[in-house]
Amino acid sequence: MRYKEPDQDMSKYMDTCMTSVNVPETMSENMGFASAVAEFGMLLRDLKFKEDSSYDAVLDRAKKNIGKDTFGLRDEFLELVSSAKLLSE
């Protein structure tokens, strides 16, 4: 992976081997919610990587990881997924 600090011109290279040792057992609320958003995107695009994803799985994970929803955007996402689910039936 390469990344660049906002105020710099040169990017830095990083690599890390991901194993079960350095992957946490549980996700943070933000990561759990983000994974629900990503799964929803795969469902909308009907990607081959979606495997056995479902709108119910998206809703369940998003609700469990809604966390602090200061501006109501996460709740709005739940409404969007619910509407998409109804349209797909």
How would the blueprint of this fold be written?
Layout: E1 2-3, E2 12-13, H1 29-45, H2 55-64, H3 73-88
Antiparallel strand pairs: 1-2
Helix pairs in contact: 1-2, 1-3, 2-3
Strand content: under 5%
Number of domains: 1
- Main sheet summary: 2 strands, antiparallel
Helix content: 40-55%
Spatial strand sequence of the major β-sheet: 1-2
Q: What is the structural class?
A: mainly alpha
Name the features:
mainly alpha; 4% strand; 89 residues; 2 strands; 3 helices; two-stranded antiparallel sheet
Describe this structure in words.
The protein is mainly alpha-helical and 89 residues long. The protein has one domain (2-88). Helix content is 48%, strand content 4%. It is built from three helices and two strands. The protein has helices at residues 29-45, 55-64, 73-88, and strands at residues 2-3, 12-13. A two-stranded antiparallel sheet has the order 1-2. Helix 1 (29-45) runs parallel beside helix 3. The N and C termini lie far apart (40 Å). The model has no long low-confidence stretch (mean pLDDT 91).
Offer a quick outline of the entry:
By secondary structure, the chain is mainly alpha-helical. It has helices spanning 29-45, 55-64, 73-88; strands at residues 2-3, 12-13.
